[in-house]
Inverse folding.
């Protein structure tokens, strides 16, 4: 297991690499390039600059999260071929700089969705939170106005002001795309890019839908064991793999996270683990909690043990954290709570390792 930390890059993240370097165990960096429009090729010079910045700070960059997929690919429009070509070129460019894993998602229109980006928890910290009732109240035909009204003054990924203008058109286009069609479009994309991924030795790792059920009437295809299995079968290659996000999949209690890790891990399909906890209050209502098992609904020990038992050699990162100790910044991506998450996950790992090796516990 290689522990990592997500960093949004110079000018996009208020947390410096110098601070990240002081997190116990010195995690590797997970990052991306943000000033290239989705669908265009990531230029070699920009990748080199990112790689150099990270390495000059004494850190490693082997994981990209995310190379986003252009909406035309998800919609299956004729223009997708150009964007797929570009995606393949981006993979080739990334490979030149030693990138080993590329995380991506296939969620229509939005990345993760929450109804509150700064819910105040009883201890005074704030967390991302999801309430189904609030989300259901959003009328897809009034999506721009509704999203603006609900966003609490923050921006969610995919909710950028300039993109809001195109939302109505996108929603119209998705009326012709059901889950079957979306899966077909993912298959088309994977059949094109996986041979390139194999050639340049980059493992593709799809991130689950967050939350793992349909919102705003849009199709969702990465939400359970069955759907992941279908995706793995689209192209039977270890390069067609998964980012197993415990907080995303775990929002549906039917998803047994340790069992999923063991199942897809045994097949060599998990390349990246997002390990975080959430507190489920009632079906489809949850807050993101600290990483500690007793603060949420996930058994983090069992999750780490599953990774240990499959002899996981991929990358792990804590996922969203709360905002604590007065920190302000990008919701879900503060320094303190995620650094605590790393210390805790590393602690679990060390304990499991020593119990097994020294005392032969199972
Ligand atoms: C949520 C986060 C996501 C993730 C993207 C991957 O759990 O990990 O924002 O980065 O969906 O493409
Ligand atoms: Mn995640």
């Amino acid at each position: 297991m290689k522990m990592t930390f997500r960093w949004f890059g110079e000018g996009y993240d208020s947390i410096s690499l110098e601070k990240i370097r002081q997190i116990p165990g010195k995690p590797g960096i997970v990052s991306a390039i943000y000033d290239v429009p989705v669908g265009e090729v990531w230029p070699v010079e920009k990748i080199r600059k990112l790689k150099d910045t990270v390495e000059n700070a004494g850190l490693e960059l082997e994981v990209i999260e995310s190379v986003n997929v252009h909406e035309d690919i998800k919609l299956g429009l004729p223009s997708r071929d150009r964007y797929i070509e570009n995606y393949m070129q981006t993979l080739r460019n990334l490979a030149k700089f030693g990138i080993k894993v590329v995380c991506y998602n296939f969620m229509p229109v939005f990345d993760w969705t929450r109804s509150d980006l700064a819910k105040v928890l009883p201890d005074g910290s704030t967390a991302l939170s999801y309430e189904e009732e609030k989300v259901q109240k959003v009328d897809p035909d009034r999506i721009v106005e509704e999203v603006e009204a609900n966003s609490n003054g923050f921006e969610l990924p995919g909710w950028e002001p300039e993109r809001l203008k195109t939302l109505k058109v996108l929603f119209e286009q998705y009326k012709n795309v059901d889950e079957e069609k979306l899966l077909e479009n993912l298959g088309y994309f994977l059949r094109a890019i996986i041979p390139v991924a194999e050639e340049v030795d980059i493992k593709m790792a799809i991130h689950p839908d967050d939350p793992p059920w349909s919102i705003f009437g849009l199709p969702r295809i990465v939400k359970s064991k069955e759907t992941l299995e279908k995706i793995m079968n689209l192209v039977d290659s270890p390069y067609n793999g998964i980012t197993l996000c415990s907080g995303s999949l775990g929002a549906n209690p039917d998803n047994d996270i340790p069992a999923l890790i063991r199942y897809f891990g045994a097949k060599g399909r998990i390349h990246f683990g997002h390990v975080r906890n959430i507190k489920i209050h009632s079906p489809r209502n949850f807050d993101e909690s600290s990483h500690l098992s007793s603060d949420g609904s996930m058994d983090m020990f069992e999750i780490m043990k599953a990774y240990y038992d499959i002899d996981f050699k991929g990358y792990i990162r804590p996922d969203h954290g709360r905002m604590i100790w007065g920190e302000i910044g990008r919701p879900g991506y503060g320094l303190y709570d995620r650094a605590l998450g790393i210390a805790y996950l590393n602690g679990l790992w060390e304990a499991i390792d020593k119990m097994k090796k020294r005392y032969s516990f199972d």
Observations:
- The longest strand covers residues 126-131.
